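Exam prep: given the inputs below (a chain plus zinc ion), describe the expected output before reading on.
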Amino acid sequence: MAMEHEGGCVCGAARFKVTGEPSRVTICHCTWCQRRTGTAFGTEVVFEDRQVVLTGGEIGRYRHVSDESDRWLDVEFCRRCGSNLGFTLEAAPGIRTLPAGAFDDPTWIRADRYKMRHVYLRSRRTWSDLSPLVEQYEQHFRQ
Ligand SMILES: [Zn+2]
Ligand SMILES: [Zn+2]
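Solution:
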């Protein structure tokens, strides 16, 4: 029996289901991923198209053309709440990514189980490191 995992956007209007194992996990620190996610990096779980089913009527798509490679990437998102739902790209036909944080239970996504790589570290932000100079809390500091 193949492994199945589900996930979706924060408002629940867009959902996805994957069957089987991802081929890899890419943690991308490029400036494009920083901008599209609004944070330090994108964590993309990579599947073949046929493993992924996206459901819900609120899925939007934006085509970005890279100014470096001139190739397109189709970013998918929930039209209602704006959550990131991963992307497909011209450079890698037949595959799509899903954001690791959008799975209902992301604890199965582990570096000891899957090939996991940090890429584009040339633009890594120092504020994504756990610096001993920055206060740290297991929960919020107001608790
Ligand atoms: Zn949504
Ligand atoms: Zn990137």
